[in-house]
Amino acid sequence: MSSVLYDEPGPRARRRERIGSVIGAVLIVGVLALAFRYAWDQGLFGADRWDVLYDPPKNQTAEDVWRSMVVIGLGATLRAAAVAAPLALVLGLLLAMWRTTQHRWLRAPATAVIELFRGLPVLLMMLFALLGFGWDAFSSVVFGLTVYNMAIIAEILRAGLASLPKGQTEAAYAIGLSRVQTLLLVQLPQAVRTMLPSLVAQLVVLLKDSSLGFIVGYPELLKAMQNNAQYFGARYYVALFVVGAGIYLVVNISLTRLAVWLQGRSTRTAGTVTVDPTVTPAAPASR
Amino acid sequence: MDLLADNLPAYLSGFLFTLRLTVISGAIALVVGTVLAAMRVSPVATLRGLAVTYVELLRNTPLTLVFFFLVFVAPQFGVRTPLGFWTAVIALSAYTSAFVCEAVRSGINGVPVGQAEAARAVGLTFGQTLSLVVLPQAVRSVIPPLINVLIALAKNTSVAAGFASVELLASGRRIALANPSDAMLALAGVALFYLVITIPAGLLAGVLERKVAFAR
Hints:
The complex is a heterodimer of chains A (about 290) and B (about 220).
Chain A: H1 11-41, H2 47-50, H3 62-99, H4 104-118, H5 122-132, H6 137-163, H7 166-174, H8 179-209, H9 213-216, H10 221-232, H11 237-274
Chain B: H1 2-6, H2 8-40, H3 45-59, H4 63-73, H5 85-110, H6 113-121, H7 126-156, H8 168-178, H9 183-215
Helix pairs in contact in B: 2-3, 2-5, 2-7, 2-8, 3-5, 4-5, 5-7, 6-7, 7-9, 8-9
């Protein structure tokens, strides 16, 4: 779509664009060079800032450092997410079913629960568990992640149910399925499929939010970075941050790619059902 | 209930801190995010690349990590942001602008192709097409998702509690720690203040969404 905003460039426009791109590139390279020089003057590239990653001081091995980051830190992050995600999915599913029941007064409590948990910060929910129920840090993190994401997942699934053609439900009733059967056998399988990309995207949010454990005292990846920096010296914060941020980016971007891939797959398979196979399918919409 | 009444000044000062954080970061994020979105659809490849990189990096980074960077990592190479309010504003607006960019961009892409084609056909340039035809229409359909982004921002200000800002959540935590037997009540007070922001804003987004849907 965005390519419609300007003409297919002719030779002169192409030259102008090339010049613009080159000027932009030169500017960016210039800024980067300045930043690089500044960092160099600050001694950011000295071995004494980075050796924690391959030859750490204080008689520790590099293996210990990496283990504390990847196995213990990332492990704790993933463990909290791995416990919270299935819980949020199951509870979200139940809430979505409850929210779509026939009677308005039966629906009301589900609506209230969803609106309440959607409107509150995840960190507050974690504090409720930590200070209010007196739970330990891990349970508090899992509680916060679960109740927030269950509300969001319920809303995603509700949107999925609402987007289904009415004929699906009518056909299910017509062949004599009960309401529960219609929901479980006809509507939900389709809703989950169309909403799969959003669900995966929500899992990325859940994983990102597990870093709030840092604030409530759960020893996850950020805490591992801080512990290492406090033990080996604050000058290693940069090196440890680069590793920690890199881990987050790799994990989250892989999940995001999975979501995009699922989206492409679901539109393609859905398309083959309705599109006349003799017609060449239109180019996939660029997003 | 006495607990809430007794600590009302603390709650209110925290609430005001949260509101100020939300408004200032929100304003910066809206401006930066819109500029980023214009860069993402522009014909100049380097601008596109820059915007895409920024958005992808920030969207896949936890907000806590952005705060962590400003508070612990940046001082190691001599960049010291004033602790507290302005650190929180920088982190929140940097993070939120990526989401604003995505919302505005999907709005731009949601304007029917014929509009841009017609604008091109009457000879408007890229800048004119964008500012006179596409953006005014995109803004309408972008407002509900933008409100949702700002609601998320209001909730995200709570992360500043972990980094030396005494906003709403940090005030509530103090009250809860000082009155351990009434911790639930103290935190419920915090929840109430957040809901005062988020629920009306959510309803507003819903109403506007329906309005825009009917207009199309």
